[in-house]
């Protein structure tokens, strides 16, 4: 019995989106540069408020003369919002890093190698994706004290 490759790709995309959501830092200073951080914030907000919204829709259906089909469609749409966000994050995490961020990636990686956080020969054939960039940014925050490995004195000048 063969598996449907599109179904597996969909599942893998959702898993990548969940992994990317856990990996991304949520600091305000990065939200202006990376839209996925705003999407993650929206997904968490939707998940937080979705149960009361659905209960409200069910109560609305019970007490108001609303059509059942409209209520069901509204509930399905509300349930699909976090799934759409996670799917987008999964696609974004596997997207190639744009050229304007490759230089920043290489600079951060070099600083992490100089501080002996990363090995020089760690992954020579590493695919430059947003996920690998966020992993590097997280390592930079932990080991260098800030995201882009810049000195605070140099950024104030």
Automatic annotation (TrEMBL):
Question: Record keywords: Membrane included?
Answer: yes
Q: Which GO terms describe its cellular component?
A: plasma membrane
> So where does this one cross the membrane?
46-63, 69-89
How does the UniProt record describe the way this protein sits in the membrane?
Answer: Multi-pass membrane protein
Name the domain of life this protein comes from. Bacteria
Q: Which Pfam families match?
A: DUF412
**Keywords in UniProt for this one?**
Cell inner membrane, Cell membrane, Membrane, Transmembrane, Transmembrane helix
Q: List the subcellular locations.
A: Cell inner membrane
Q: What is its main location?
A: membrane
Family the entry assigns: Belongs to the UPF0208 family.
- Read off the NCBIfam families from this record: PRK01816.1
Can you say what this protein is called?
UPF0208 membrane protein YfbV
The organism named in the record is Gilliamella apicola
């Amino acid at each position: 019995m063969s598996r449907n490759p599109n179904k597996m790709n969909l599942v893998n995309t959702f898993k990548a989106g969940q992994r990317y959501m856990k990996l991304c830092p949520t600091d305000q200073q990065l939200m202006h540069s990376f839209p996925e951080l705003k999407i993650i914030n929206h997904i968490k907000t939707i998940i937080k408020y979705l149960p009361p919204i659905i209960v409200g829709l069910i109560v609305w259906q019970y007490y108001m003369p609303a059509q059942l089909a409209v209520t069901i469609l509204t509930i399905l749409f509300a349930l699909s919002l976090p799934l759409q966000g996670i799917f987008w994050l999964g696609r974004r995490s596997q997207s190639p890093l744009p050229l304007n961020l490759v230089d920043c990636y290489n600079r951060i990686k070099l600083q992490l190698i100089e501080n002996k956080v990363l090995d020089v020969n760690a992954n020579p054939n590493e695919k430059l994706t947003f996920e690998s960039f966020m992993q590097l940014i997280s390592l930079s925050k932990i080991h260098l004290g800030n995201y882009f490995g810049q000195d605070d004195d140099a950024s104030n000048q």
